[in-house]
Structure prediction request, 392 residues.
Amino acid sequence: MPTPVQAAAIPQALAGKDVLATAQTGTGKTLAFLIPIMEQLLKQNTTGIAALVLVPTRELAMQVADQYDALRGKQLSPAALVVGGLSEGQQLRAIRNGARVMVATPGRLEDFLDRKLVNFRGLRVLVLDEADRMLDMGFLPAIRRIAAVLPKDRQTMCFSATLEASVVHLVNDYMKNPVRVALGSTLKPSENVRVQAFEVDADRKQEVLHRLLAKETGRCLVFARTKRGTERLTKNLNREGFAAAMIHGDRSQSQRTAALAGFQQGRYRILVATDLASRGIHVQDIAHVINYDLPEIAENFIHRVGRTGRAGGHGVASTLFGRDQRSDLYQLERTLGIRMERMSSTADRQEKDLSQMQDRTRNRNQPDRRESAPGTRMVRLPGEVLQVQMQS
Prediction:
């Protein structure tokens, strides 16, 4: 059964219309453009790159290419993956071996175009996936340069979880009377995700994080704001006995790929990441997303939380914030029109303190079992024990 965004977008795409679609994360947008592309390719007996999918990150490019290759069958050749950080020779071989679909990040593709290593004379479809994210990351000049060398007579589709005013550039400049598909609120978490917030003293953040991770049996994705914070947090978790890997922009592609693969395959139960992983990273059954640091912009919260509760599943999203960040959290809630469930981060400590206090009280009321020295007797006073030497 198609998801709502698939049911709405696929017929329009098959009819050759330009499509501008927004829907919440985890609703199946990737198949909403891959299925029409494959249908069209099976009907066209042409050579060369017929469809170009532009995405903002290597990880997303790899996942889109993998999804295409899993569905294409034997009649279509594998997709050409064109991204930085991986073997250039292997990417060029895929193009020369007859790939008809290319999934690329703008930087590496521009490099190939400058060196005349690829041409798009036979291109029929351009897809911009996570279009607003590409503009956030400053890719608009590169997108303009790439679009300038593509055939004007083509179909263009834009898919994203959020749609900011900046994307109007793409609509006005590169799309012809697009069909607008807008499903659900793109600025609110999925109803399948329980959203909660913990006010935490700075010196107790890691303690609360450890407790949340220890209680959760499924996969957990932890977001930190900085690369250094990601590394520090991952090392701490591994020291404490948690199986954790990390992803951030300074890691090599092989390190990022190994971390993601280990997380997907269960070798690591926890993945610590910057917002690099907040878009497009799809790992089956992430049970809990934890915002160790607040995101810099509100929409990144939606993309972070969207890593759980996908494809009809349910999940939990927890956010840790300090007393001095109360106004930041309130502003985030106002922007998104949500209210996070406030949770007590001190409940366990209070329960422990109460238990210890009860133990001490019980001990004071018990007879003292220590042996007394010969010729002494025990005299109990309220709250203390004294040994009194008796005169012979």
